[in-house]
From TrEMBL:
<dbReference type="InterPro" id="IPR036097">
    <property type="entry name" value="HisK_dim/P_sf"/>
</dbReference>
<dbReference type="InterPro" id="IPR004358">
    <property type="entry name" value="Sig_transdc_His_kin-like_C"/>
</dbReference>
<dbReference type="InterPro" id="IPR003594">
    <property type="entry name" value="HATPase_dom"/>
</dbReference>
<protein>
    <recommendedName>
        <fullName>histidine kinase</fullName>
        <ecNumber>2.7.13.3</ecNumber>
    </recommendedName>
</protein>
<keyword id="KW-0812">Transmembrane</keyword>
<keyword id="KW-1133">Transmembrane helix</keyword>
<feature type="coiled-coil region">
    <location>
        <begin position="363"/>
        <end position="404"/>
    </location>
</feature>
<keyword id="KW-0418">Kinase</keyword>
<dbReference type="Pfam" id="PF02518">
    <property type="entry name" value="HATPase_c"/>
</dbReference>
<dbReference type="InterPro" id="IPR032255">
    <property type="entry name" value="HBM"/>
</dbReference>
<dbReference type="InterPro" id="IPR036890">
    <property type="entry name" value="HATPase_C_sf"/>
</dbReference>
<feature type="domain" description="HAMP">
    <location>
        <begin position="329"/>
        <end position="382"/>
    </location>
</feature>
<dbReference type="InterPro" id="IPR003661">
    <property type="entry name" value="HisK_dim/P_dom"/>
</dbReference>
<keyword id="KW-0597">Phosphoprotein</keyword>
<keyword id="KW-0808">Transferase</keyword>
<dbReference type="InterPro" id="IPR005467">
    <property type="entry name" value="His_kinase_dom"/>
</dbReference>
<feature type="coiled-coil region">
    <location>
        <begin position="207"/>
        <end position="264"/>
    </location>
</feature>
């Protein structure tokens, strides 16, 4: 029978050493999972029992705490109401309103949380008492406002008018009338003072004194009515009597509001506040008593739950330790032995002996795999050594090529510097000789000397191109900025290119609007790039026309100038456009014998100059039709953001190059 790790060869249960490691791990994980499930069930049961008791205790504690907060809110409400009744300011009234709303919210929370019918009944009574209390407070505030308004708007004007009328009566008679009017005025003032004291202190003596002073004022007025016979005085006395009668009515009303306010405070506010406090205290006492009972029950229950959980946890831990010991003995130890062997093999020790384990499980399979791995590692090491040798040879070849490239650049620089001086001497000497021959009238020899001068200038230009290309390769080319006039540059370009155009029988024209303005850029590089384009156009055009044009435009929001050189020469296929800007590449065979073709660096330098100045190139050509090359340069040179010169690599011209459709010169507007 085939073994699967579950049955032995005889079909019975396998021996521990004959089972596979996967089976042992599965048994171990199964035991661990069973232990975890047992612990989870025990924990959930314990958690459920504890959470149930804790929930009941927490509910009772929350009710007790909320009741305590409600009792504090009631005390704060009474303090705020007392402050408002004492000072009468708006802030204390607002504070009392907020305290009332807070107490009402707490009573609502208690009513929602309470489950005991007795608690709910007590809270309903407390809510009703709060409503009655707050209604009484609102009534007291209204009475106070009415009393204050009556005193300010009615009583005080009446007292003022009475004193004014009594002042008129002082001057209406003799000494007796003056004394009676003065006594009446004093009695009115005393009545007003006793009224203020009564409102403030609620003293019945002040009320009696107030009424007595009012009666005294009336008596004085009656006496004056008997003594004064001056015309008009009886009318004034009557008016003062009417004023005193009105004052009496208002004083009675004020006294009634004081009495009503005192009754409200004694019969409604105080009992309702006491009722609220009593009902809240009743709820709080029951909640505290329930919380104490639940706390004791929770402590007893937790002790029992903890003992049971501890016993079950100890049993589970013992079984777990036995399972760990069995797994470690049957799995971890042989795996550790193999791990040591693999680590030694990974460190490069291929000659280590592999442990021989007489087992029929994964460890034995791993041992055979490690043996094959050791053989492969030895083979790979040999191949790596061979590859290291090849890489070393390639690195040496690369270093040799870089040295040769540096040597080539040094050679170009040295050769250019060595040739520049004698060529300059040849040009100067030929100029001097040509002038002397013209002076003596030897025109034939002068023409030959002029050819020597022209050839020397061509050689100097070739040397300068080699030097510029060497600087580009060395990354030593700088940008020298200056302001120059675009129209004057075009005139200078035409004058300097006319000899090359005449040499090949070409016409050279300029097409540009006046007033193109100035550019702030590298004048030398702009001029040299355009001279190279004009030289190429004249060289590859025979008996044709060359047109140099310029226009102002905006490229991507940047003011720019577009220089275009168009010829009617031989042209070339558009697929060769990118190749023309590579160094030392010629555009084709010179059309006329005896004409030098140059070093193939003209367009290469044009591309690099354009890239350095932040411009781009557009080329259009058709074989047999002609060529048009346009340089678009920013009017004001913008340096790179990192304040470093732009990268000067051989791919810079090609990244700025675009190929366009060629238009014959007949379709261009000069």
């Amino acid at each position: 029978m085939k073994r699967s790790g579950i049955l032995s060869r005889s079909g019975g249960p396998p021996r521990p050493r004959a089972t596979t490691m996967a089976s042992r791990l599965s048994v171990g994980f199964g035991v661990a999972l069973a232990l975890v499930l047992v612990l989870a069930v025990v924990g959930l049961g314990w958690f459920y029992a504890i959470s149930r008791d804790v929930g009941a205790f927490s509910n009772s504690a929350d009710i007790a705490q909320t009741a305590a907060d409600a009792d504090i809110a009631l005390r704060d409400l009474e303090v705020s109401v007392r402050d408002h009744l004492t000072y009468g300011d708006g802030q204390s009234l607002l504070d009392a309103t907020l305290r009332h709303d807070s107490l009402n919210d707490r009573l609502a929370s208690l009513t929602k949380a309470a489950s005991d019918p007795a608690d709910r009944a007590a809270l309903v009574r407390a809510t009703g008492s709060l409503t009655d209390y707050w209604g009484a407070v609102q009534r007291v505030i209204a009475l106070r406002e009415d009393r204050s308004t009556r005193i300010i708007t009615t009583l005080e004007p009446l007292v003022s008018q009475t004193r004014e009328k009594l002042g008129l009566l002082k001057n209406a008679g003799g000494v007796d009338s003056t004394a009676l009017a003065s006594d009446a005025a004093i009695a009115v003032l005393l009545m007003q003072e006793h009224l203020s004291r009564f409102v403030e202190r609620r003293d019945p003596q002040d009320a009696d004194a107030m009424k007595a002073q009012l009666a005294a004022a009336r008596n004085k007025l009656t006496e004056m009515n008997r003594y004064l016979w001056v015309p008009g005085t009886r009318q004034i006395i009557g008016e003062v009597g009417e004023l005193l009668a009105k004052a009496d009515e208002n004083i009675a009303r004020v006294e009634a509001t004081v009495t009503e306010e005192d009754n409200l405070r004694a019969d409604s506010m105080a009992p309702n506040a006491a009722g609220i406090a009593a009902n809240i205290g009743e709820v709080r006492r029951r909640a505290d008593h329930g919380a104490d009972g639940l706390r004791n029950a929770l402590a007893v229950g937790m002790s029992g739950y903890t003992k049971v959980a501890t016993a079950i946890g100890a049993a589970v831990l013992l079984v777990g330790l036995l399972a760990v010991w069995w797994i470690q003995r049957s799995v971890s130890r042989p795996v550790s032995v193999m791990a040591d062997a693999v680590s030694a093999l990974a460190s490069g020790q291929t000659n280590i002996p592999l442990p021989v384990l007489h087992r029929d499980d994964e460890v034995a399979t791993l041992a055979r795999a490690v043996q094959r791995l050791r053989a492969n590692l030895e083979s790979t090491e040999r191949e790596r050594q061979e590859a290291d040798g090849q890489i070393s040879q390639l690195l040496r070849d690369k270093a040799r090529a870089e040295n040769l490239n540096e040597a080539k650049t040094d050679f170009l620089v040295n050769m250019g510097q060595q040739l520049h001086a004698p060529l300059s001497d040849i040009i100067q000497s030929s100029q001097a000789l040509m002038g002397e021959l013209h002076r003596k009238g030897v025109t034939e020899l002068a023409a030959d000397v002029e050819q020597i001068q022209w050839t020397g200038e061509q050689l100097v230009g070739l040397v300068d191109s080699l030097l510029d290309y060497a600087k580009i390769e060395a990354g030593a080319m700088d940008v020298c900025l200056q302001d120059f006039d675009v129209n004057r540059l075009l005139v200078e370009l035409r004058e300097r290119s006319l000899p090359a155009a005449d040499l090949h029988g070409n016409s050279l024209e300029i097409a540009a609007p006046a007033g193109l303005g100035t550019m702030h850029s590298d004048f030398t590089k702009v001029r040299q790039a355009l001279l190279n384009l004009l030289d190429n156009a004249c060289k590859f055009t025979q008996g044709g026309a060359v047109l140099l044009s310029a226009e102002s435009l905006e490229r991507e929001g940047v003011p720019s100038v577009r220089f275009t050189v168009t010829d009617s020469g031989r042209g070339f296929p558009s697929v060769q456009t990118g190749r023309l800007f590579q160094p030392f590449v010629q555009g084709g065979t010179a059309p006329t014998t005896g004409k030098r073709r140059g070093a193939g660096l003209g367009l290469t330098l044009v591309g690099h100059y354009t890239a350095m100045l932040g411009g781009d190139i557009e080329v259009a050509s058709e074989p047999g039709q002609g060529t048009r090359i346009a340089l678009t340069l920013p009017t004001v040179y913008q340096p790179p953001t990192d304040h470093q010169p732009p990268p000067l690599d051989t791919e810079a011209p090609r990244s700025r190059l675009r190929v366009a459709t060629y238009k014959p010169m007949a379709q261009l507007t000069p």
